[in-house]
Write a structure and sequence with these properties.
The chain is α/β, with parallel strands linked by helices and 361 residues long. The protein contains 15 helices and seven strands. A five-stranded parallel sheet has the order 1-2-3-7-6, sandwiched between helices. The chain is globular and about 60 Å long. Bound molecules: thiamine diphosphate and magnesium ion (MG). Thiamine diphosphate binds next to strand 4.
């Protein structure tokens, strides 16, 4: 979509070697390969729709920034697979996720209408947090609304997992931790507690190579997170953060282990932020990072790569186009619908309501 997509995605053409590598990644690990081979076609297409929904939700926000509806938006462009794969691998109505701002798509993939996600940005009275925050969640759907303080979801999700363990419920709690967020005390304390208590938690370490305007090399001396899980004494694995099926399979296997009482997993996902920290610094990000980095990751567009996979898998191009048309329509309708709430601002005194839980045991 020229004007909205990163330039590397406009006129995107598949790189044959990368398409082969994408498939090879899925065949490298026997357990993951077996899981992927058993996946029904329907699930695979739901993952495709999920990637599109995430991308188009972000495009819509960008459009609103350009047209002055909102002033700024935090997007997950290029990182969609790291959110969509894991969320689909969990059990709806049973497991809990705590997305960070980059993982907002967890909400729609667990059933929150895109219109409500967009309303969160408008801050309207009828938005999920009644105008308090653009960080969006849906507790009834298993999505804990995040706060902006990075790292803090780690001890919270760990606490939720402790409840699951104490109640002997086979449930899993999952959160994403950015490469920069690994440097917070909260992330360390939470991960360590989950480790020693062997809690059913999955931590996805989302290494998008950057923390705000600071490149990975300037905040993380080891250069990668290969030894991160071992330093806590927990099970670690990596998945290709731009490969939705690898993300799905790695998370599914980790969740099964959690349910069997085998303790937490830390999954390292390598990916790349194809935009700025938010819409305000997109150009700055381009100035900060070498162009080759954008080119390298631009060739690995998680949506384009998955389309190539599906085509080889026998899915007709027409079927993919139908899904795209349907999701585009869904997001357009959602935006129109949300805009109707634009002037419904919450009354000031509502900020004092709903702060503390009541009658909760
Ligand atoms: C505790 C805390 N410190 C600083 C900030 C400001 N801040 C917001 S996002 C961010 C960078 C986070 O980087 P990373 O964890 O890699 O996530 P990414 O934005 O790359 O997805 C910072 C420093 C914050 N929100 N919370
Ligand atoms: Mg980061």
């Amino acid at each position: 979509m020229p004007g909205f997509d990163p330039p590397e995605y406009v006129d995107w053409k598949p790189d044959r070697a990368l398409v082969q590598e994408y498939r090879a990644t899925l065949e490298r690990d026997a357990e993951r390969a077996a899981l992927v081979s058993r996946l029904p076609g329907e699930t695979k297409l739901a993952l495709y729709a999920g990637l599109l929904r995430a991308r188009l939700h972000d495009t819509q926000l960008k459009r609103w920034v350009r047209t002055g509806v909102i002033s700024k938006a935090w997007l997950g462009t290029g990182e969609e697979a790291t959110t969509v794969g894991p969320v689909h691998a969990l059990e709806r109505g049973r497991d809990i996720v705590a997305p960070m701002i980059r993982n907002a798509a967890a909400c729609c993939e667990l059933g929150l209408p895109v219109s409500d996600m967009l309303r969160a940005y408008l801050g309207s009275d009828d938005s999920p947090a009644r105008g308090r925050d653009l960080h969006v969640g849906a507790w009834a759907l298993g999505v804990l609304q995040p706060i902006s303080h990075v790292g803090d979801m780690v001890p919270v999700i760990t606490g939720i997992a402790l409840t699951f363990k104490l109640k002997q419920e086979p449930r899993v709690a999952l959160t994403w931790v950015g490469d920069g967020s690994t440097k917070t005390a909260a992330a360390h304390e939470g991960t360590n507690f989950a480790a020693v208590q062997r809690l059913p938690t999955i931590f996805i370490l989302q290494n998008n190579q950057v923390a705000l305007g600071t490149p990975l090399a300037q905040h993380h001396l080891p250069g990668n997170f290969d030894d991160w899980a071992a330093s806590y004494g927990i099970r670690g694995a990596a998945f290709d953060g731009n490969n939705v099926l690898d993300a799905y399979a790695a998370t599914r296997l980790a969740a099964e282990r959690c349910r069997r009482g085998e303790g937490p997993a830390l999954l390292v996902a390598e990916t790349f932020r194809m935009g700025g920290h938010a819409t305000h610094d997109e150009r700055e990000a381009r100035d900060t990072f070498p162009a080759e980095l954008f080119q390298r990751w631009g060739k690995r567009d998680p949506i384009g790569m998955y389309e190539e996979y599906l085509k080889v898998d026998g899915v007709a191009v027409q079927r993919l186009e139908e899904i795209e048309a349907k999701v585009s329509e869904e997001v357009e309708r959602a935006a129109e619908n949300a805009l109707q709430s634009r002037d419904k601002m919450p009354p000031g005194e509502s900020a004092l309501q709903g702060v503390y839980a009541s009658n909760v045991r």
